[in-house]
User: Fold these one by one.
Assistant:
Number 1:
Amino acid sequence: MRHHLHTLGYAVIRPVLSMSSPDERYAEKGEKLRAHQAVAKRGEVVLLFDDEMDLHVLPSIAGCWTKRGSQRKVPMPGKNQKCYSFGAVNTVTGAVTRLIRERKNSESFCALVEAIVAAYCPGECRKGTKMVRVVDNFIIHRSKATRKLLGQYADCLEGCERPTYAPQRNVMELRWKHLQRKVTHNYLFASVAALVAAVEQFSAELDNQPATVLSVIGCAE
């Protein structure tokens, strides 16, 4: 049977979990997002996708080239430690505004918002192209502290809701996956500090490769 299935083009492939979005406004949000993408390509707004990622000392595991008959063993830490990476990617230029914090909370997310404003609309008068930030409904994106800060920047920042349970709509997540493939998969770092240093070094190098970033996030021309 196994041989017959192979001749028919079948193979044993690990399935992936999938879920249809229950968002009743999925189509509406998707259409609005496409409209923002078109306007951003014309240079009328800066379109940014915001997201967070957990950085674990416990290695992330992925398939890799291994000699037949053997299995690579990745060491584990005695105790897992982690911190959090926050980032926003520009879908036109490939630029990424990013920071790493010890906690994934409103204070850390607000620090990212401040960094975005400083990067695109510096100065008290905040002159610059209006920004549209695509975010999900995670609690720190809509907390009281976050809403208060966003209110202060309402003249230059606009929010755009991403459809719920639709990670494929978040291109910043593709940037995180690229980092994991290149830095964290199958490797045990000696400490959180060593992990952060490796992530920062890789990210700094990638900052000088905007074409690569746009390709990774699926926004290359």
Number 2:
Amino acid sequence: MHPQAAAFVASYPSDLGVDPATLDLDAIRRMRAQDGFALQRGPKPRIFSVRDEVAEQVPIRIYRADAEQDARPVVVYFHGGGWVFGSVKRNDALGRDLALRTGAVVVSVDYRLAPEHPFPAAADDAWSVVRDIFARPAFYQGNGSVAVVGDSAGGNLAAVAAWQARDAGLQLAHQVLIYPVADVAMETASYREYSSGFGLDAAEMAWFARQYAAGADPDDPRLSPLRLKDFAGLPPATVVTAECDVLRDEGELYGARLAEAGVPVEVRRFEGAVHSFYALPGFFDQAAQAREYVAARLQEAL
């Protein structure tokens, strides 16, 4: 384990920090209102434009780094949080950072959260925003080139939106999946190896899945994109994984399935890293390295 990761999990051995069985809806809402990692999410640099809008009834925040008025590629970002936590506001620093690093218009999506809005609400919202960007490029100052990016549960939504776009005849330029939730079966070796004490516990991940999709068919590719029948024709991809993460193997398996189908894909594992490292540059030097890598992949694709 990377020394910074070891120091992090010594202080925060689990993602939630409490027994998830004790969390009722009121407790979940109180936790949403707090952010103990606000400073570690990085600075919020001033950029030319940050505006809150709505896409097909889904709240979004649009970032543009400079004052030039030319049309740009659009990068759609879906935050993590197990479909239960997270928001555009909480991930504002990351949205600004992505706009600065890529030069693209960044659209951060405030999709509906579980358990109030169970599956497939989040996936539906993600697809609605992607569809709207293709339908109204001028509104976004977009040039028609669109990519999706997501971390953790957001990576799940990005992967789902990518195949929905393919099936609708809309060609995404790229998909970036950062330690994505690819299969709710939770049966991989990394689930056994890193089941507890490495940030995101296996029991916590199971709790997140129950909040979002209790009773849903685990074979539904809107929930488990790894179970998609046909990977051919999906957009080129970048998959980022963390070595010490329960989600590592399913993300890497997703990359392998893309490659088997002839989809250009690059999978990069960050050795010694734990889940959430990408979102917390205040804790992890590897966050900056991963963000530079992701930005370079997007710039190449867009």
Number 3:
Amino acid sequence: MVPVSVVIITKNEAEMIGRSITMLRQLTDDIVVVDNDSTDHTIDISVENGCRVYQKSWDGYGANKNKGIALARYNWILSIDADEIPDADLLTSISRLKLDDCDTVYDIPFKAYYGNKAINFGNWGRDHHIRLFNRTRVKWSEPPVHETLVLPQNMRVQKLSGHLHHYSVKNVQEHEAKIVHYAQLSALKYQQSGKKANMVKLYLAPIFHFVKAYVFLLGFLDGKEGWNIARMAFKNTWLKYYYLDKAEQNPVGKKNLYEVPVMAYELKANAHTE
């Protein structure tokens, strides 16, 4: 055991969370689960595996992660999502750290999956994130979506070996639902910050993101999954500016983006999954 607390936010993650907890229990005796009204067996599985579970109202990704950080036993925090599973190399890498420098944060490589297929190219094939940090120095930002770690100046970043294996989506339908969900949240974030939609953002930016993912980053080498990832990058970029544009044109939408009647797909994405 090492003096690291794991913080996980959840909603209906019974299918995946047991596998993640099984690996994490080899690292620490403190796993904090912040749950957003799960209706499956997420809470039961977490409790049965020795986690401390807290049911909190949903205030956003960053806000709920910060709630978990505040409840943690240790100052060093490993922040993961319920669909991310650490491998043995990563656990070994973390267990060997001295963790004696609060001004160092640790960057973890990701291995992404589309269904059960590992993705090696495109945006997903290059993924890595800072996920291990000291809570006395670092917290999450709290926008509607795409929260980031707020790092003080002069923080040192150290890369770890091993991977977090990210089972992002099961199929195209789930992927599309998540794209719509995140596009809405991104449009709300842009609206709140005063960002405007324009012709370049609506029509050229989606094409650029598709070409970048599929051609420049070699996404085509991942086969149909690479095509779907690039296609959804196009759709996400277009939708978020489409929603933002509609909100700008609609007086009601300026107060609440979700009142704008532009839903193109049924939203099925979990409220917390990234």
